[in-house]
Design brief:
Elements: H1 6-24, H2 28-44, H3 56-66, E1 70-73, H4 78-87, E2 95-98, H5 103-113, E3 121-124, E4 127-130, H6 134-139
Parallel strand pairs: 1-2
Antiparallel strand pairs: 1-3, 3-4
Length: about 140
Protein backbone atom coordinates (compact mmCIF):
# COMPACT_ATOMS: atom_id res chain seq x y z
CA UNK A 1 0.00 0.00 0.00
CA UNK A 2 1.33 3.40 -0.92
CA UNK A 3 1.29 6.24 1.54
CA UNK A 4 -1.51 8.05 -0.33
CA UNK A 5 -3.89 5.33 0.87
CA UNK A 6 -2.64 5.04 4.46
CA UNK A 7 -4.93 7.73 5.89
CA UNK A 8 -8.12 6.59 4.10
CA UNK A 9 -7.52 2.94 5.02
CA UNK A 10 -6.82 3.95 8.63
CA UNK A 11 -10.12 5.86 8.65
CA UNK A 12 -11.97 2.80 7.38
CA UNK A 13 -10.35 0.52 9.95
CA UNK A 14 -11.03 2.88 12.85
CA UNK A 15 -14.60 3.41 11.72
CA UNK A 16 -15.12 -0.33 11.42
CA UNK A 17 -13.76 -0.94 14.91
CA UNK A 18 -15.84 1.81 16.49
CA UNK A 19 -18.98 0.72 14.63
CA UNK A 20 -18.43 -2.89 15.69
CA UNK A 21 -18.01 -1.81 19.30
CA UNK A 22 -21.23 0.20 19.16
CA UNK A 23 -23.13 -2.66 17.52
CA UNK A 24 -21.91 -5.15 20.15
CA UNK A 25 -22.90 -2.69 22.89
CA UNK A 26 -26.44 -2.68 21.53
CA UNK A 27 -26.46 0.65 19.68
CA UNK A 28 -26.95 -0.22 16.01
CA UNK A 29 -28.03 3.34 15.14
CA UNK A 30 -24.81 4.80 16.49
CA UNK A 31 -22.85 2.04 14.78
CA UNK A 32 -24.28 3.02 11.41
CA UNK A 33 -23.71 6.70 12.13
CA UNK A 34 -20.02 6.12 12.97
CA UNK A 35 -19.56 3.88 9.95
CA UNK A 36 -21.05 6.47 7.58
CA UNK A 37 -18.95 9.21 9.17
CA UNK A 38 -15.68 7.31 8.84
CA UNK A 39 -16.42 6.10 5.30
CA UNK A 40 -17.10 9.73 4.34
CA UNK A 41 -13.83 10.84 5.94
CA UNK A 42 -11.95 8.04 4.17
CA UNK A 43 -13.39 9.11 0.82
CA UNK A 44 -12.65 12.80 1.44
CA UNK A 45 -9.00 12.08 2.29
CA UNK A 46 -8.47 9.66 -0.59
CA UNK A 47 -7.00 10.48 -3.99
CA UNK A 48 -10.39 9.57 -5.50
CA UNK A 49 -11.69 13.09 -4.78
CA UNK A 50 -9.16 14.64 -7.14
CA UNK A 51 -9.05 14.43 -10.93
CA UNK A 52 -6.46 12.05 -12.37
CA UNK A 53 -3.00 13.44 -11.76
CA UNK A 54 -0.50 14.00 -14.51
CA UNK A 55 3.23 14.59 -14.30
CA UNK A 56 4.59 18.10 -13.89
CA UNK A 57 6.06 18.14 -17.40
CA UNK A 58 2.77 17.03 -18.97
CA UNK A 59 0.79 19.52 -16.85
CA UNK A 60 3.09 22.34 -17.96
CA UNK A 61 2.71 21.31 -21.59
CA UNK A 62 -1.09 21.19 -21.32
CA UNK A 63 -1.23 24.52 -19.45
CA UNK A 64 0.80 26.16 -22.20
CA UNK A 65 -1.77 24.97 -24.74
CA UNK A 66 -5.01 25.78 -22.92
CA UNK A 67 -3.96 28.35 -20.29
CA UNK A 68 -5.53 26.37 -17.42
CA UNK A 69 -3.86 26.49 -13.99
CA UNK A 70 -1.56 23.74 -12.77
CA UNK A 71 -2.42 22.67 -9.21
CA UNK A 72 0.24 20.89 -7.18
CA UNK A 73 -1.37 18.87 -4.36
CA UNK A 74 -0.90 15.86 -2.10
CA UNK A 75 -3.42 13.42 -0.60
CA UNK A 76 -4.57 14.14 2.93
CA UNK A 77 -3.90 17.87 2.69
CA UNK A 78 -6.86 19.75 4.18
CA UNK A 79 -6.07 22.89 2.17
CA UNK A 80 -5.97 20.87 -1.05
CA UNK A 81 -9.34 19.33 -0.17
CA UNK A 82 -10.78 22.78 0.51
CA UNK A 83 -9.56 24.02 -2.85
CA UNK A 84 -10.85 20.93 -4.67
CA UNK A 85 -14.33 21.14 -3.12
CA UNK A 86 -14.63 24.89 -3.60
CA UNK A 87 -13.68 24.61 -7.28
CA UNK A 88 -16.43 22.08 -7.84
CA UNK A 89 -16.87 20.63 -11.31
CA UNK A 90 -14.82 23.45 -12.81
CA UNK A 91 -11.80 22.08 -10.96
CA UNK A 92 -11.51 19.33 -13.56
CA UNK A 93 -10.33 21.96 -16.05
CA UNK A 94 -7.12 22.47 -14.05
CA UNK A 95 -4.13 20.19 -14.41
CA UNK A 96 -3.52 18.38 -11.10
CA UNK A 97 -0.06 17.13 -10.10
CA UNK A 98 0.28 14.85 -7.07
CA UNK A 99 3.67 15.77 -5.59
CA UNK A 100 3.90 12.43 -3.77
CA UNK A 101 3.85 10.64 -7.12
CA UNK A 102 5.85 13.09 -9.19
CA UNK A 103 9.36 14.04 -8.06
CA UNK A 104 9.54 16.80 -10.67
CA UNK A 105 6.31 18.28 -9.31
CA UNK A 106 7.64 18.17 -5.74
CA UNK A 107 10.81 19.92 -6.91
CA UNK A 108 8.74 22.62 -8.65
CA UNK A 109 6.82 23.25 -5.43
CA UNK A 110 10.02 23.42 -3.36
CA UNK A 111 11.44 25.93 -5.84
CA UNK A 112 8.30 28.08 -5.71
CA UNK A 113 8.01 28.01 -1.90
CA UNK A 114 11.62 28.46 -0.89
CA UNK A 115 12.35 24.81 -0.07
CA UNK A 116 9.06 23.74 1.49
CA UNK A 117 6.47 21.42 -0.02
CA UNK A 118 3.57 23.73 0.76
CA UNK A 119 0.45 22.75 -1.15
CA UNK A 120 -1.75 23.59 -2.84
CA UNK A 121 0.55 25.56 -5.05
CA UNK A 122 -1.18 26.84 -8.16
CA UNK A 123 0.77 27.97 -11.22
CA UNK A 124 -1.00 30.39 -13.53
CA UNK A 125 0.81 31.83 -16.56
CA UNK A 126 4.16 30.66 -15.17
CA UNK A 127 3.68 32.35 -11.79
CA UNK A 128 3.28 30.27 -8.62
CA UNK A 129 0.69 31.10 -5.96
CA UNK A 130 0.85 29.24 -2.63
CA UNK A 131 -2.49 28.31 -1.05
CA UNK A 132 -4.50 30.82 -3.11
CA UNK A 133 -8.12 31.72 -2.46
CA UNK A 134 -10.37 29.18 -4.24
CA UNK A 135 -12.49 32.00 -5.70
CA UNK A 136 -9.36 33.44 -7.31
CA UNK A 137 -8.47 30.06 -8.84
CA UNK A 138 -12.07 29.50 -9.99
CA UNK A 139 -11.92 32.84 -11.84
CA UNK A 140 -8.92 31.58 -13.80
CA UNK A 141 -10.59 28.36 -14.94
Amino acid sequence: MTRVWMLPVSMLLCGGLIATGEAVAGSPGEAVLFLVLFVSLAFATSPLVFPRSVGAAEAGRRAALDGAPVVYWRPGCAYCLRLRFRLGVRGRRAHWVNIWRDAEGAAAVREATGGDETVPTVVVAGRAHVNPDPAWVRARL
